[in-house]
TrEMBL record:
One of its GO terms (molecular function) is acetylpyruvate hydrolase activity. Signal peptide: none annotated. This is FAA hydrolase family protein. Keywords: Hydrolase. InterPro entries: Fumarylacetoacetase-like_C, Fumarylacetoacetase_C_sf. Residues 28-227 form the Fumarylacetoacetase-like C-terminal domain. It comes from the Bacteria. Pfam families: FAA_hydrolase. It comes from Mesorhizobium jarvisii.
């Protein structure tokens, strides 16, 4: 047995709908600008090919969590997303076989320190500090694909304190799930346990301490998280 000099950290995981078992998370990949209206609201061309950024696996937190308002920002944004959970290893996966690698789906929120992202863009620096921070990847319970099927349409929405801010349909994805999985696998060998946040629709905006975000994807589930006070 391997001995470690420090205690082994807990394995990040996501709940599974209707089960006491959990889905161990290996890595988190996120797709940028995958809804045309969202691309346009930030002044970008929706015809651009997809690009990816990452979050640490331990950024994932369950629905129902109170998330401390993160440091270094005064402009924390919500981005509701369909999440694809990978269940089978694959490298350079053909598009027509890509969905065979998806174990299931969930509803996630890509929390973003927008002011830090804007600064990074202006300086042509990486986005890491704006995206890859503690508790930045809330994810609701996963539904196995054998139960949900592979969604191609259905409402995706998010509300802040009950007021709807994002409201779109999965049919508006520029790059559907099979394309996303296939393209991502050209750069890395996808592994069981990887999560892919598939992009957010228009309507992203700021959330403040004390505000609660609720959201959902038709046929997949819902999520609810509250932003708490900053850590002292």
């Amino acid at each position: 047995m391997t001995a470690f000099v420090l205690p082994v950290p807990p394995t990040p995981s996501v709940a599974i709908s209707g089960s006491a078992e959990r889905f161990a998370v290996r890595r988190i990949f996120c797709v940028g600008r995958n809804y045309a209206a969202h691309a346009r609201e930030f002044g970008n061309d929706e015809r651009d090919p997809p690009f990816f950024f990452t979050k640490p696996s331990d950024a994932v937190v369950d629905s129902g969590t109170v998330i401390p308002y993160p440091p270094l920002t005064a402009n924390l944004h919500h981005e509701i997303e369909l999440v694809a959970a990978i269940g089978k290893t694959g490298f350079r996966i053909a598009r027509e076989r890509a969905l065979d690698h998806v174990w299931g789906y969930g509803v996630g929120i890509d929390l973003t320190r927008r002011d830090l992202q804007d600064e990074a863009k202006k300086a042509a620096r990486p986005w890491d500090w704006s995206k890859a921070f503690d508790h930045s990847a809330p994810c609701g319970p996963l539904v196995p694909a054998q139960k949900s099927g592979h969604p191609t349409k259905g409402r995706i929405w998010l509300a802040v304190n009950g007021a709807v801010k994002q409201d779109a349909d999965l049919s508006e994805l520029i790059w559907p799930i099979a394309d996303i999985v296939s393209i991502c696998s050209e750069a890395v060998e996808l592994q069981a346990g990887d999560l892919i946040f598939t992009g957010t629709p228009a309507g992203v905006g700021a959330v403040k301490p004390g505000e609660t975000m609720t959201g959902g994807v038709d046929g997949i589930g819902t999520i609810e998280v509250t932003i708490g006070q900053p850590r002292s």
